[in-house]
Design goal:
163 residues, mainly alpha
């Protein structure tokens, strides 16, 4: 389960970096100005911030495994929808939905001791949190390296489909 969380978050971080790197191509193709692109990039974080408490409540109610499966499915669907967006309103709407599912994904994976605790000795459970924290900090630094070299070779729409 820890590996599945790690893998889901690797893809999530690369996906976040892709949009920022592809911003010039998106602006040119959709005819967005700097304000419009700012709305697109920030829309993700509006729902990410607003849904913190509801997502925690939902994960507590249905469990980590179910919420992780739902979040990955939701996130995959809206990542594909990002490539299908044809204008500012559609792109902002998709990014709003992505913020909610990305939050759910992150919340589910931030409970490693609760998720895998029954199979680990109590004195070793702190290592689960340590590994998760170390992995996420590393991913934030290296995720742009995964998407930067690939992006110029193709259009941003096909790149979103591959992420």
């Amino acid at each position: 389960m820890i590996f599945m969380c790690f893998l889901a978050n690797v893809i999530n971080f690369v996906d976040r970096a892709n949009l920022a790197i592809a911003a010039p191509s998106i602006r040119a193709e959709l005819g967005l100005d700097a304000v419009g692109m700012g709305l697109v990039l920030n829309a993700f974080f509006w729902t990410y911030a607003f849904l913190q408490l509801p997502a925690g409540w939902f994960i507590d109610k249905v469990g980590v495994r179910v919420s992780l499966a739902l979040a990955v499915g939701w996130w995959s669907a809206f990542t594909i929808a990002t490539g299908a967006a044809r204008g500012l309103a559609q792109l902002v709407g998709v990014r709003l939905m992505l913020g909610g599912c990305s939050l759910s994904l992150m919340r589910a994976c931030r409970l490693p001791a609760r998720m895998c605790g029954p199979w680990w000795a109590k004195w070793r459970r702190h290592r689960l949190t340590w590994h998760r924290s170390a992995a996420f900090r590393t991913l934030r630094g290296i995720s742009p390296a995964f998407s930067s070299p690939r992006l110029p070779a193709s259009c941003w729409r096909s790149q979103k489909a591959r992420s």
